[in-house]
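Project channel, design review

CF: Before we commit to the Methylobacterium ajmalii constructs, I'd like one complete example in the thread so the newer folks can see what an input/output pair looks like. Taking GNAT family N-acetyltransferase.
RD: sounds good, go ahead.
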Amino acid sequence: MPSPIIRPLRPDERAAWDPLWQGYLTFYGATVAPEVTDLTFARLHDASEPMHALVAERDGAVIGLVHYIFHRSTWTAGPYCYLQDLFTAQAARGQGVGRALIEAVYAAAREAGASRVYWLTQEANVTARALYDTLADRPGFIQYRKVL
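CF: and here is what came back for GNAT family N-acetyltransferase:
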């Protein structure tokens, strides 16, 4: 299987992005209002936003996505990079797509002067965690959240 091409999501690729985005939301049992999805897609293409999107492409088809956000930190001069969303189409799983997308975020973060890339996943997501354990350290922090 050839390695996927990792590249920025283009503004004309909404139809290719939507099924992956909806698949990601479904995987986590989440829903997002259509207007928020519209806003998210627009933000991913707004140069003034710290949000970015890369896709994995193979044989002309978009088979994976990653969204990441740069933000300031009180601990470093440069930014941190939060890898917010990562999803691979079911038929492309186990073929190195997720790894390639994460490594592309690492490269983008280095280029931006970020000192770290970090992300969250559910404890029960054992398949993804098996990959993540080969790519990053788990620092032992626990997330607390209050929905407002």
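RD: helpful, thanks. The helical segments are 14-27, 34-43, 97-111, 126-135.
CF: Residues 3-131 form a domain with the Aminopeptidase fold (CATH 3.40.630.30).
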